[in-house]
């Protein structure tokens, strides 16, 4: 097969970013090769091995890199000024956050090694140098919370989250009647029906023809199971039984804790056998179904249900939760881009508001505020006429990243505007808008 590049392919490769040079011959490797690859070919790799053998003979004593000892560090003190909620880390961020984000060179609060300026932002927020020290800090903090050395109730936001979960439980459980949750049609926006945080006694969950019903252990006469659970948990805990109609298999659980299963052919009554073969020869598996959604207040919650299915169902996000996650991703990306530009001007840890670019585009009715022409939402970057966020007071003049200082603009208009200051009318007076007349 002829693998020669065509003219168009050769032109497209010229614009690709270059990779790292080979440490032996200096040849620039492809940009997509991993950073751990140091040599461009096998001869260079052999030359490097030969050079290493010459510098370190076989009879030379071996030296190992010393691993820094994890010395006991100071207990993390919750910083009330930095109790912001970070997406994906809503529990640990207000507890472990330091007073200021590390910029590079600060000592790690666990091993005292200097923190790299290129470390992940969460590590620099907590003043740790690596994932190992981050895990150690979490473990130590969890121990101190258990000892009562850190009062979670005193941290702003922590009590609010706990209250929100309790409010969700009360609201979803209020006047809740047993229901049937079915598998929706293939063309539906979401494949399964669900409601609240999980099934209640009397509910029926159908997943691709497999039916699971739910009842309390007391209602089916399993008093020994109630005694077992209460002897190893809280006194008033009532286990729930999930019953598979096709096979008669049973599963007892409380919350996320699995206590007992009974499946066809199982001998010991306390063996937790989650995968089994039914009398019809089909293979079944007990799975804790997980669906993530947001309520009308924008608070995240999870539907969890032990269901018996023929094939495992992956964790799912509802369209509402997916849209909110995309919104957070866009706003975080815009904020990080602004902070990176401010660091280029010497301003570290610049304040920036989480602003979704889509909200600004819709506020400005998808109209470029520089050339006053429509922006096509279907056009994406790097098209010159794609939508971008423009800072009315430029970033070079310490313009803030807030909705009042942001406007929609074509990418090409944003570039041509440069460091000019002001929206709409200000550009007209400066004669800037006239330079865009005739642009499509």
From TrEMBL:
Superkingdom: Bacteria
All copies of domain HNH nuclease, residue ranges: 357-415
Compositionally biased region (Basic and acidic residues): 52-62
Pfam family, one: HNH
Stretches the record annotates as Disordered: 50-79
Any GO molecular function: nucleic acid binding
Entry-linked Gene3D superfamilies: 1.10.30.50
Stored InterPro entries: HNH (IPR002711), HNH_nuc (IPR003615)
Stated name of the protein: HNH nuclease domain-containing protein
Organism: Streptomyces mashuensis
Taxonomic placement: Bacteria, Bacillati, Actinomycetota, Actinomycetes, Kitasatosporales
């Amino acid at each position: 097969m002829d693998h020669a590049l065509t003219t168009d392919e050769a032109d497209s490769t010229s614009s690709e970013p270059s990779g790292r040079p080979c440490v032996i011959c200096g040849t620039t490797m492809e940009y997509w090769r991993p950073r751990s690859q140091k040599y461009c070919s096998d001869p260079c790799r052999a030359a490097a091995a030969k050079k290493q053998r010459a510098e370190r003979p076989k009879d030379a004593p071996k030296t190992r890199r010393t691993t820094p000892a994890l010395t006991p560090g100071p207990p993390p003190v919750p910083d009330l000024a930095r109790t912001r909620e970070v997406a994906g880390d809503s529990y640990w961020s207000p507890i472990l956050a330091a007073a200021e984000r590390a910029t590079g060179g600060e000592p790690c609060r666990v091993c005292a090694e200097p923190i790299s300026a290129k470390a992940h932002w969460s590590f620099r927020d907590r003043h740790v140098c690596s994932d190992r020290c981050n895990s150690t800090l979490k473990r130590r903090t969890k121990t101190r919370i258990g000892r009562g050395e850190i009062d979670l109730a005193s941290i702003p936001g922590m009590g609010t989250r706990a209250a929100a979960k309790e409010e969700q439980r009360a609201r979803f459980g209020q006047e809740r009647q047993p229901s049937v949750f079915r598998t929706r049609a293939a063309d539906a926006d979401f494949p399964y029906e669900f409601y609240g945080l999980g099934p209640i006694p009397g509910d029926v969950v159908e997943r691709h023809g497999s039916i699971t019903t739910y009842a309390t252990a007391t209602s089916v006469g399993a008093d020994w199971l109630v005694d077992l659970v209460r002897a190893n948990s809280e006194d008033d805990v009532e286990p729930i039984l999930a019953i598979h109609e096709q096979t008669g298999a049973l599963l007892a659980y409380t919350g996320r804790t699995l206590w007992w299963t009974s499946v066809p052919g199982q001998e010991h009554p306390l063996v937790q056998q989650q995968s089994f073969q039914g009398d019809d020869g089909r293979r079944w598996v007990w799975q804790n179904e997980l669906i993530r959604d947001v309520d009308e207040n924008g608070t995240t919650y999870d539907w969890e249900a032990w269901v018996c299915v023929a094939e495992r169902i992956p964790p799912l996000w509802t369209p509402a939760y997916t849209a909110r996650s995309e919104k957070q991703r866009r706003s975080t990306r815009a904020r990080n881009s602004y902070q990176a530009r401010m660091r280029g001007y010497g301003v570290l840890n610049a304040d920036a508001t989480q602003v979704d670019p889509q909200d600004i585009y819709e506020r400005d009715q998808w109209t470029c505020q520089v050339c006053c022409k429509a922006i096509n939402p279907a056009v994406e970057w790097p098209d010159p006429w794609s939508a971008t966020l423009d800072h009315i007071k430029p970033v070079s003049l310490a313009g803030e990243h807030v909705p009042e200082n942001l406007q929609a603009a074509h990418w090409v208009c944003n570039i041509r505007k440069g460091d000019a200051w002001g929206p709409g009318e200000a550009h007209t007076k400066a004669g800037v808008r006239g330079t865009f007349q005739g642009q499509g």
